[in-house]
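Researcher: Structure for this, please.
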Amino acid sequence: MANRKADTAATVATGGYESVFFSASDGLKLHAADYGRHNPATRDRLPVVCLPGLTRNTRDFDDLARLLSTDPKAPRRVVSFDYRGRGQSGWDKDPSRYTIIIEAEDVLSGMAALGLEHAIFIGTSRGGLIMHVLAATRPGVMAAGVLNDIGPVIEGAGLAQIKAYLSRMPQPKSWADAAQILSEAHSKSFPALTETDWADFARAIYVEKDGHLVADYDPKLLHGLKDIDLGTPLPTLWPQFAGLGRMPLMALHGEHSTLLSTDTLEKMKDCIPALQTVTVAGQGHAPILHLSGLPDILTRFFASVDKQRRH
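Model: Predicted structure, token format:
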């Protein structure tokens, strides 16, 4: 990878990570959260790269990243990325550039800036689609992968549900109101979540700006959804998915997911017999990774990847 200069901000006072800012190939300033970077104990293990969903950001992975980076037996460096137009990354003046291909290029720029040559990838929803792109363009950067409730087939009904929710999401009046809004919208798909979990969920999605709580992304990001014709079958990514079969691969499936069907999951296992699958009870699209015993499941998978690489 080409060397790029990364400007590292001060470590956050609450501990656990550094905010790192780097430039995309077009000069846009982008952000990543880097956990465990300076811990010598993480250097003998593969780092983990976390890629969020369509409108999401690095905060989705904060609890998981803290657990992985401070594991007393096998700590790992964890890096999560804010795509352009999300979180602390800059907003693109041209909303047509909010595409999976460009976001994949941005991830590669970030890895180069942070000195990451290979990593275990976790891709939630859109992040998993970016992994499909990388499987076709730069497979060498991925030593292993976890697809979080995403595969080569996107169910139109699930995408329509996401599109409808994002287009009518109300602006919360307070943090308590934000948690309530999310609970009312998603509790049927996420019965496993507690009141505390919904409050944490709100903090991951919203940010305070000018005294108001707003979703933490450029609203123009949703322009791309308007052009999708849900009346026709969506394109599939089976050749790219097959490329992911060259490495250890796990797929997480939310029990109540409408975006990844059980039929597609079975076909994924037919395509890649070595694929490990986990259905996450009490969660929908997409499972929250620090809940439902998932950190232990992921830690065991990562350890198996390390063992395979040693042999």
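Researcher: Any notable elements?
Model: Confidence is low (pLDDT under 50) at residues 1-5, 8-14. The longest strand covers residues 17-23.
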